[in-house]
Specification:
Layout: H1 3-11, E1 15-18, E2 27-36, E3 39-50, E4 58-61, H2 65-69, E5 73-76
Antiparallel strand pairs: 1-5, 2-3, 3-4
């Protein structure tokens, strides 16, 4: 799939990964809230990438031009 095709899914809280990523990248997901002291705070939407294979957990992520133009995006199912 293309990035354009997965964008509605990202907005619906689905997880995606590129098949050409061969490293520790597990998936990318869009977030729009954070929790502080048990209260959900609305924030500007942001992407996180799960890289737990490298012991990092989650990192901030922004798509590169290559990611936006790629056609190898697939949905990750839990």
């Amino acid at each position: 799939m293309t990035f354009e095709e997965i964008l509605p899914g990202l907005k619906a809280k689905k997880k995606y990964v590129r098949t050409s990523w061969g490293g520790a990248e597990n998936y990318v997901q869009l977030f729009d809230t954070i929790e502080q002291n048990g209260v959900a705070l609305e924030v500007t939407p942001y992407f996180l990438i799960n890289v737990s294979g490298e012991g990092e957990g989650f990192s901030m992520w922004s798509p590169t031009p290559c990611d936006v133009l790629a056609t190898d995006w697939v949905e990750v199912h839990d």
